[in-house]
Amino acid sequence: MKDILLITNYWHFKVEKESSRYLFLAEMISQETDLSLEIVTSSFYHATKKQREYNNDFLDSFEYKVSLINEPGYKKNISFRRLYSHNIFARNVLKYLKKRKRPDLIYLVVPSLDVADKISKYADQHNIPLIVDIQDLWPEAFKMAIDIPVISDVLFYPMMKKANRIYSRAERILAVSNTYVQRGLRVNKKDDGGLSVYIGTDLKYANYCIDKYKNIRTDSRFWITYVGALGYSYDIKLIIDAIEKLNEKGIENILFNVLGDGPLRKEFEQYANEKKVCTNFMGMVEYPKMMGILASSNVAVNPIVKKSVSSIINKVGDYAAAGIPVINTQNSNEYRSLLDEYGAGINCNTLDDVVSAIELLYIDKEKQKSMAIASKKIGEQYFDRNVTYRYIIKCIKDLTNGGD
Question: What pTM value is reported for the model?
């Protein structure tokens, strides 16, 4: 039985988060293959910024082994303390790895770069097949937040070299979008094609949630819904401004649902109040109810700021699973092309574009309906984990000689 080691800083237990890429993958590996799987992750939970306090009975309750490795933690996502915390975690993971028997394959999630650099070097030294799964581009994402000409390039140059080393060591580059795959392949000479598998969702479960909660609305207003973090990457004010302009034109029965939380929530709430825009900031909502709200909505919005380096992100899979038209401001060519090809949404560049897009879907019910159908088709073809994650399992088996 082949021994597979999956290493990630950002593991989610089901009690912490209903829907998770690596939890779903781990369950699929355990239930559908004869591979032996161990999850190596952090004692520190990124979402709550707290240490996990699970006992051995809980950790032993899974079909695979789970090892929590000590990490000191941090309070802010963008901080030197976070980099320090990752460095300590990386050292502790490497110590653990040297104590256990060598695995037949390492599945390494990036970020963080510190862990990935040390573990990819270990795999390279010991000829252990390595899959690098790119969830986010570091340091590119940090450079978006600290964007100072020349200085940012110098500041993040060591991180860029580290990322290049990691990608170059992988037998296989895997990522949550083709855009990220191509970034890894630029410095990798071992993999001739890479593998793009969107984060996606469990479509069977999503449909169950939708059926259970879809009748959640009690009014006839036009629902615009956003799901996700309320931070610096998302231009919630842009949507508020667009609705304000529509209100001024006499379209006043619009409700903007905002599902999620983050450091800018109070600022966004205050802005909506100042603009007299009808909004419903709901905070964190459990996945089943969230899917019901999405499926009950008229339009979803993906208002990502222009300088973001993100590509196919988590929320767009939920939007597709819900079968809802998307008004999109994200610059990602990969996602924009997907919406255009299927006619599942409207790509926008300016505030006036967003106003026009909302007004079009508000007036044209047939257009809204056709885009909803197209969105559902995207969900079925690209975002159903029950289908797409089998490509990941095949990749693992291929690198371990079939998993025998």
Answer: 0.90
